[in-house]
Design brief:
The protein contains four helices and 14 strands. The termini are far apart. It is an alpha+beta fold. Strands 1-2-3-4-5-6-7-8-9-10-11-12-13-14 form a 14-stranded antiparallel sheet. It has one domain (30-277). Helices cover 22% and strands 47% of the residues.
Length: 282
């Protein structure tokens, strides 16, 4: 009798397991995946903008000459009537060394030299596009000086950003509060090829399908000047209005340059290549 009861219990557990598996397999994760890809797109665009502003803010050749070509952009350093950096790509797409096309311009308004602790920078955009995605945003960057680990740290606050996608209709809305930590290359400040940044913080917004999302970094994102994409890092991803609310975005380091991203929902793993997330139309 006990053996029969035991067998019935095991059989019931198997049926329950199969039922749950079948339920998960029947779920449609398309909206989750699209929201996650929109998040990754915004993360990639704005980390590149930080690196360009950082480079222009520290480059003494640019400061001394007033002009320098940096990664196919015409970069101007103005000292009068106030400190300002102009980053210009022109009216037509330019293929940059990182494999992304850019056009338009943005300006960086400084209250003092950006390399000074406590300095602030405000960034505004004029018809700026990355791989035909239009970027509209207000960005404030602050040089926080040395952190507890004796590493230079920078606060980056983005408010009310809008990405107009390549179809010229769909938009991604984005707000973020991030900290970029200069973990490697700080001992050679004029060699910008060896710089590595660790990114922590959170972001929220709405996807191109108007689904709200939130992202909270749980393993710092690693961004280097030698790679076009985020090399590694992980974040919790939350979509409160969808059936499956919690997921994970993992910039897996297995391929060394991190162009592959994994999305995990209900234990199911999906992946995409970074270059495909832009859905470029050249």
């Amino acid at each position: 009798m006990k053996k029969l009861a035991f067998l019935i219990t095991i059989f019931s557990m198997i049926l329950l397991s199969l039922s749950c598996k079948k339920e998960n397999e029947s779920k449609d994760y398309t909206a989750n995946l699209n929201a996650a890809k929109d998040y990754v797109l915004a993360e990639d665009i704005f980390k590149d903008i930080f690196k360009m502003v950082f480079r222009a803010g520290y480059d003494t050749v640019l400061h001394n000459e007033g002009y320098l070509k940096i990664n196919e952009a015409d970069v101007y350093y103005y000292t009068a009537p106030s400190l300002k950096i102009g980053i210009t790509y022109g009216d037509w797409n330019i293929l940059c060394p990182d494999g992304k096309s850019r056009r338009g311009k943005y300006y960086v308004f400084l209250d003092t030299v950006f390399s000074a602790a406590g300095s602030n920078a405000t960034i505004t955009f004029e018809k700026f596009y990355v791989n035909n995605t239009n970027v509209q945003a207000s960005i404030t960057m602050t040089n926080d000086g040395l952190n507890a680990d004796n590493k230079n740290s920078y606060s980056v606050l983005i408010n009310n950003a809008v990405l107009l996608l390549t179809d010229s209709i769909s938009t991604v809305k984005w707000q973020s509060d991030k900290t970029f930590i200069w973990t490697e290359g700080d001992e050679t400040p004029q060699d910008f090829e060896d710089d590595v940044f660790s990114i922590i913080g959170e972001a929220n917004g709405t996807s191109s399908e108007n689904n709200a999302f939130e992202g909270n970094i749980i393993v710092p994102l690693k961004d280097t000047t030698s790679c076009s994409w985020i090399e590694s890092g992980k974040l919790n991803f939350y979509t409160p209005g969808l059936e499956t609310k919690n997921g994970i975005i993992d910039f897996i380091p297995a391929d060394s340059c991190g162009n592959r991203v994994e999305f995990i929902f209900d234990g199911f793993v999906f992946y995409e290549l970074m270059e495909n997330i832009y859905n470029t139309e050249n």
